[in-house]
Amino acid sequence: MRLFPFALVLTALAAPAAAQSEGCTGAPSDTRLYVNVSNVRNANGLIAVTLYADIRKKFLAKRGSLYVGRVPAVAGTTRVCIHLPAPGTYALAVYHDQDANRKLNRSGLGLPKEAYGFSNNASTLFGLPSFGSVRFVARNNGEAGVRLKYP
């Protein structure tokens, strides 16, 4: 009888490893979101997907994200699986980290030098998108599309 609880602990410990082995980024959970990042010009570097909670003041703020998931870039479309804390409302910011330095390179004026995009393909014609334009509802095994824009 003492082995039974120990077996449950081993099973619980093995579950996160199994979830990670499926190729999803982030803290393992039962909720996954598949992000299809299109218009990826080449397979250099990484595609970085930043997940934000439904909190306006944290969107694009330093240390405001829940986490950043990174996967190798695939020319054309890169599919990224990320674990979500739970189904709910989130926002995404994505960029193509071509040199894999784990940051969005910027010009001397502060403008992006690498491709970027946002959930709902929110417009950036007049600057950063509004928080309301990037919010979306995510369900387990849901999908989101983000088209990269090159400077």
Question: What does this protein look like?
Answer:
- This protein is of the alpha+beta class and 151 residues long.
- 15% of the residues lie in helices and 38% in strands.
- It has helices at 3-21, 131-134; strands spanning 24-25, 31-40, 46-53, 67-72, 76-84, 88-97, 116-118, 136-138, 142-147.
- The strands form 2 sheets. Strands 3, 4, 6, 7 and 8 form a 5-stranded antiparallel β-sheet that branches.
- The longest helix has 19 residues, at 3-21.
- The protein is globular.
- The N and C termini lie far apart (64 Å).
- Mean pLDDT is 88; it is low at 1-21.
Short account of what is shown:
Helix content is 15%, strand content 38%.
Q: What are the key terms here?
A:
single chain, 151 residues, alpha+beta, five-stranded antiparallel beta sheet, four-stranded mixed beta sheet, disordered N terminus
